[in-house]
Design a protein that fits this description.
alpha+beta, Fructose-1,6-Bisphosphatase, Chain A, domain 1, D-Maltodextrin-Binding Protein, domain 2, seven-stranded mixed β-sheet, 7 helices, 14 strands
Length: 279
């Protein structure tokens, strides 16, 4: 996916890792200070009562923006909390930031959340980093240069049989969509090996990269949810489908999909036959 005219992606991966690591330390510190006592947690509603904005989201994104302003002042930034202004111009690098992916896990004391920092140029991924604050694991990739977990190369699953596959998915905050997603899962459950729902899309995509799960699908994700993780999965050899692609593949325009190369076609066929585009 990298153009010959794109800049060297490796320095962007290095900087994404550096900034995401610093934000991860802050995320844990804020959780101890604010979210540890949920009776006084600083929570405001987002799209529904389930989707909360925490002090951790805001402080971590502010830190990432500050560091990028120091190191890459001419770049654009798209963040879950702060948005982007103005839109990137042609040839301008854009950083896509999820300060805390897995917010509900974060506020409930669960370990499955991350800081995700992606880098793109004219819509093409250059680099990305996903850091897990609790475990300290660092997932990263640079376009054309592979994907790594704590510096070790990653490779997606070689499994080719959906009936044996462990498939990750997510459920939307919106109750109506969540109900449709649950119904879809019920239709495919007997045709796959097992299902996992971590509540953190970036880590689901990284799990595909590592071969820990064989495939992943979800509708309704935002760019900051998948920017870094999708590149990590792709650079590990997975077949990746990002939202916004043409709808004639039968998965729907809002679908995020990733699977090992041998599983991708049969898993996509299974999802289409179950009506995945309708969720």
């Amino acid at each position: 996916m990298r153009s010959v005219d794109d800049p060297d992606p490796k320095p962007f991966e290095t900087l994404a890792v550096e900034i995401a690591r610093e934000a991860a330390v802050l995320a844990l510190a804020v959780r101890e200070r604010v979210v540890g006592d949920r009776s006084v947690a600083d929570m405001a509603t987002k799209s529904s009562a389930t989707d909360v904005v925490t002090a951790g989201d805001r402080e971590c994104e502010a830190l990432v923006r500050e560091r990028l302003a120091e190191r890459r002042p001419d770049d654009a930034v798209l963040g879950e909390e702060g948005g982007t202004a103005p839109e990137p111009t042609p040839g301008q690098v854009r950083w896509v930031v999820d300060p805390i992916d897995g917010t509900v896990n974060y506020t409930h004391g669960l370990p499955w959340f991350s800081v995700s920092v992606g880098v793109e140029l004219d819509g093409r991924p250059l680099a990305g980093a996903v850091v897990e604050p609790v475990s300290g694991r660092v997932w990263s990739a640079a376009a054309g240069l592979g994907a790594r977990l704590d510096g070790q190369p990653l490779r997606a699953s070689a499994l080719d049989r959906p009936e044996l596959a462990v498939v990750g998915t997510g459920l939307a905050y919106d109750p109506a969509r969540r109900g449709r997603q649950a119904a879809l899962l019920a239709r495919i459950a007997s045709s796959i090996g097992d299902v996992r729902r971590q509540g953190c899309a970036s880590l689901d995509l990284c799990s595909v990269a590592a071969g820990w799960i064989d495939g992943f699908y979800e509708h309704g994700l935002q760019p900051w949810d998948w920017s870094a993780g999708a590149l990590i999965a792709e650079e590990a050899g997975a077949v990746v489908r990002r939202p916004g692609t043409v709808p004639d593949d039968g998965l729907g325009r809002e679908a995020t999909f990733a699977a090992g190369p041998a599983l991708a076609a049969p898993l996509a066929d299974l999802l289409r036959s179950a009506g995945v585009a309708d969720v």
